[in-house]
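Q: I'm teaching a short session on how sequence maps to structure, and I want students to see two examples side by side rather than one. Could you give me a first protein with its sequence written out and its structure tokens following it? Keep the formatting plain so it prints cleanly on a handout.
A: Of course. Example one:
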Amino acid sequence: MAFALDEIFAYGGQLIVAAKKRVPKALGIGNNKIDHSAYIEGNTQIGKVDAFSDATATLMVGRENTKGTDRSLFIRGNTKLEGDGGTKYTLNVNGDVTIVGNTDQTGNITASGTVKAATLIGAHTSGSISGGVGGKSAGAKAFDIPHPSKEGYRLRHICVEGPESAVYYRGRTNKNTIPLPLYWKDLIDPASLTVTLTPIGAHQNIIVKRWDAENIYLQNQGALPINCFFHVFAQRIDIERLIPEYEGQSSDDYPGDNSIYSINK
């Protein structure tokens, strides 16, 4: 059955609202027609009648305050947004955003506020962090927080930088063995390990006698017991070794795996 009312056409399971009875190519014609499809030529508004004062989009959806309607739009299924240059941004969101699941970002991220992360374990980033984390810092990674003891002040620290991917362990001991964290045996290269010892109270002539991936063994001379601070550094083996110097015009020319680093270009 088909019928036409002024500029409304319905035939073969298709609804057309247009000045002329024409069907968009995407909806098909003849044997290729998509049944129970619709085409509306011009702006369309759905929902609350006074939600918009101007025709700012081809499709405008205003939330109705009906029972159970706490959203104006609910999409179940994958969604694709493809910009056409009509505005600066393909997606412009005013308000808070919650994402449950992983995100895959290609391109730059600009944040004018504080970036908070519950955990960075296993996080891989490539590209540029031009403002640091929690504060603006050109060329360095920083955190910036309210001062813990001075009201009206803030505290900013810069991350230590060096030509390797390293971890450290520090503390105090009064024994001749420094047990390293249990996970270090699968995390660090024992050959890269370095130790700094600071005697407490008196000179004790403490030396590092030997070491492995699990323990550092100390030895001292004389009858004085061992009492010292220690600081241990070691290079990680679970990721590719850093190449500190390389030929190139930008960080994109890095000859290793760029995906494991947060880069200031």
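Q: Perfect. Now a second example for contrast.
A: Example two:
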Amino acid sequence: MTYQQHLTDFDDLIDIDDLRGRIRGAVYVPGQSGYDTVGFNACAVNNPAAVIDAADRDDVAAVIAFAGEHGMTVAVQATGHGAVGTDRRSLLVRTGALDMCEVDPASRTARVGAGVRWQRVIDAAAPHGLAPVCGSAPGVGVVGLLSGGGVGPLVRTFGLSADYVRSFEVVTGDGVIRRAAPDENAELFWGLRGGKATLGLITEAVIELPELSEMYAGAIYFDGADAAPVLRAWRAWAQALPRTATTSVALMRLPDMPGVPPILAGRLTVAVRYASVAPQSVAAAELASMRAVAAPIFDGVGPMPYSALGAIHADPSDPVPAHEGGMLLTDLPDEAVQTLLQHAGPESATMLMMVELRQLGGALGDEPAVRSAFCHREAAFNLHAVGILVPPIADAVVADAAGLVDGMQRWATGGRLPNFVSSADPAIIRSCYDDDTVAWLAALARQLDPRGVLAVGQVVR
């Protein structure tokens, strides 16, 4: 039997009318207009047997039960930022209709459905002086970020996004709807924060909201010719920053296209990102030495409402065919900076669009009040490279990302962060966790998903 015949047999065995009869939401099969499966990362090829727009948690449970009966798997998509692809052996659940977003200022919490993006929560919390601890791109889904941990522009001050989860509502691989919290299904709660979809499809989360309205934040862009002095100064400056501040630096080669500021397009620039909750005068004085390293081509750092957090990294909002690579680093000595410049600096011919270093440490390295499956809190920096897979540079992008990673191996911890990985490769997934965490996640998965319904995509098995 050929692979294609195997997939066709799955199509023949599925009773789509039966599936439609079990749920309230819509079900689409290949060829129907609602089947479109392109998410944010357009490189992820999704060709599932059916796409289901779940209306509620009961729909999610029914789809998982249906898949279990037919020997299939179930993948999930909100925005598709971390999608890794599916084939006809899978059903793809879209969660856009799970759109609850309720802020309770008295308890300083938000109840958020699986289809909600961070910007909506930010905007709902802002009138109350509250701020959800999110990542650098507020256009991503809340649940996807939380399930992978969540390393944001203020991670050294507030720590991991997942550490602010109070409870989850989740459908596990056996089709059961469960509540997971520190005092209920505690092992499941542990694994959902960092374990991606290994243990279940999260349908709702309750998160704590710290008090924060404003910060001193933004990005300074320098010309690529100044990359060497800027990177070396940034390395020394970042090491002295207090916990009130978080920073990252990125070598950017943004294309000349709509949406990209002309001053940054078609050239190499160096973006120094900075976010501080210290008083404005203190934060400005702290940043002064970096501002003086070279003449900025654009300085966008200043007082900023938390609701404008997305402007710090200015991540793209439209779908892109992205290829990613990276690693966690133990340190960033001068030799590491020189290696980075060789692979992505002004003298290189790299096809990578962005090579970024995020400073970690601070509150991220603290032992959380409630333990989670998120690992590698001890790392000093996260190195992340992104390229666009379009002809004729696609092969060069993959090669350049691999070359960068290989060149920086001397300073690698051996680990990676789940939300900076878009891969179903078991070896890459395992690198996101220590051995004990892998063993425990796999054991819980066997218990909660005995038929392997969720054994697809970025999961531990």
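Q: What should students look for in example two?
A: Point them to this: Residues 352 and 387 are 4 Å apart (CA to CA). Also worth mentioning: The domain at 214-420 is CATH 3.40.462.20 (Vanillyl-alcohol Oxidase; Chain A, domain 3).
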